[in-house]
Amino acid sequence: MIFKMRAVSKSIYAVCAVATIATVHALAAAPAGIAGRWRTEDGSALVTIAPCAAGARALCGRVTQLLVPEPKGGFRDAKNPDSRLRNRPVLGEQVFSGLLPAGRSWKGRGYSVKDGRHFAATLTADSAGLSVRGCVTIICRTVIWTRP
Predict the structure, then answer these.
(1) Measured distance CA(84)–CA(87) in Å, rounded
(2) The sheet that has 36-39: what strands, in order across it?
(3) pLDDT for the residue numbered 10
(4) Which of 39, 47, 70, 111 has the fewest CB atoms within 10 Å, counting from its CB?
(5) Beta 59-66 vs 45-51: how paired, if at all?
(6) pTM
(7) Beta bridge partners of 110
(8) Whose CA is closest to 110, among 101, 128, 123?
């Protein structure tokens, strides 16, 4: 009986060890967090990245503050490919959607209000800031955003 108890006890420890190693491995593979406020590369706006909806796994980003004086009537999404949307304000505009962990980065869709283009977005946080890579077909551009 004692032998059986020790064998069961050892197997419980083995299962716990495997579970711990799997958890540590999963955490090591997760990308750095990108939630919070970020200043765009040109310093014109702050974008807040947060869950797309309550309890959502995906993250979205919205323009939450403009850091430059607005013209009369405010900045508008004037270059939007959909002419019906060209008069909507830039403040509050969603510029990232569906960002999900992918290796060391977050991948989803982006939108540039400067040129009215949608792009494949890859965001990676590190000590220098937030690397924002946007690709339209094979043409890509990377900029660095910083914390305010």
Answers:
(1) 7
(2) 36-39, 45-51, 59-66, 94-102, 105-112, 117-126, 129-136, 139-145
(3) 47
(4) 70
(5) antiparallel
(6) 0.79
(7) 96, 119
(8) 123
In this predicted model, what pLDDT tens digit does every residue of 36-70 receive, in sequence order?
999 999 999 999 999 999 888 999 999 999 999 99
Token pair in block for residue 23 = 């958890």
Number of other residues whose CB lies within 10 A of the CB of residue 142: 12
* Element (DSSP H or E) covering residue 46: strand 45-51
Q: How far apart are CA 49 and CA 106, in angstroms?
A: 12
Per-residue model confidence as pLDDT tens digits over 13-31: 433 333 333 333 444 467 8
Best CA proximity match to 37, nearest among 109, 145, 119, 134 = 145
3-state secondary structure of 22: helix
Distance, in Å, from the CA atom of 119 to the CA atom of 122, rounded to the nearest integer, reads 10
Q: Does residue 96 contact residue 132 with C-beta atoms inside 8 Å?
A: no
Q: Tell me how many helices (H) and strands (E) the chain has.
A: 1, 8
Tokens 């939108």 found at: 111
